[in-house]
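Exercise: predict the fold of this chain.
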Amino acid sequence: MNAPAPLTWPGILRLGLVQMALGSIVVLTTATMNRVMVVELALPAILPGLLVSIYYGTQFLRPRFGHGADRGGRRTPWIVGGVALLAAGAIGAALSVGLMGQSTWLGIAAAVPSFLMIGLGIGAAGTNLLALLATRVAEERQAAAGSAVWILMIFGLAVTGITAGQLLDPYTPARLVAVTAGVGAVAITLTLVGIWGQERQAARPAPKRDLDFGEVARELWGDARVRGFTIFVFASMLAYNLQDLILEPFAGHVFGLTVGESTALGGMHHAGALVGMLVVLITGTALARWITVPIRVWITGGCLLSGAALIGLAFGGLHAPAWPLGPNIFLLGLANGAFAVAAIGAMMGLAREGDEAREGARMGLFGAAQAIAFGVGSFAGTAAADVMRSVMSSDAAAYGSVFFAEGLVFLIAAALALRLTSQPRPTAHSAALVPGE
């Protein structure tokens, strides 16, 4: 069977619409509904935290979702069905938030299955979207493609946040449900536009050996490259997310920034990440003929620079307020963005290695490691900061010790990445699927 031609940029960007759809729905559940529960309903902040943890808990199932699509040879039903389930879960979550205003416990009871649906939907759709990209994107475009789809996701987050914010004022429970339903409808439409016809010439036969999921999982974990990359993904994404929830408190406690100033600082981190993603995208497209940067350089260099930037924050806190905090945060975001999208590109390449169609199971394993690291990182970073502030007399030293430890985790991730790139790579399957341009 002849391999399908690699996706052109219009095809890659169309699949990016699916990632945009995922981001547009998720931001309503993690940001908007979170705020309504804590502010308008005056409920404990731990409640939305626990509900979001349900989403993270479902991510263990990502390898199974990918395996199911591998066996069937089609990913479109999993992607469309996943987005539809995600939209239905978000609408259910909006209804449950409204119910909390009448009866807190009934609302919570209704929210639990809704957040389960959210987790299952994004796991099924997200895993198989990346697996489809893995099978269709040429090797030299992997990092740039990962950057493009993630930029579109960020665009979806931003547009939804701004638009929903305007439509929700003044807030009412009915308005929240209506806005969520509208966003869900737009997301499903974007998904259909993005996925339509993308598998028509790319559907692959089922794996040669019809193994059950347990056998596939053991086989994948026995592959040294898959196991090593999964550990790298967990370590690097753990370090990536450990600092996410403590940057702004650090700026307030140590540098004396106001709420507005610390929020702007958080925006600087996101701006840096976007620039990092754009740099990876540009060097993989227009400048590729003149500037060739191997994906391992982006990954290893991004981890090293991220670690250095975090250690810089640890040092800088001891020299507040003279330390150039803004440029330090921007540099951290730049390194984070470059390494993260390059890691997505590496996932695509490794997912299609081997001589059988196991892209979905492999991508599911990597995705599960990433999601679990994000969940652990969100909790561990804040917990570590609280513990260190309780045992140390100086906030600068307390936060600095946490940032220093996070920087070391990034340096360990860089060492893992270097070790992976030195291992021999199977070529039989990948060479057949990645013809030259």
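Check your answer against the key: The chain has a mean pLDDT of 85.
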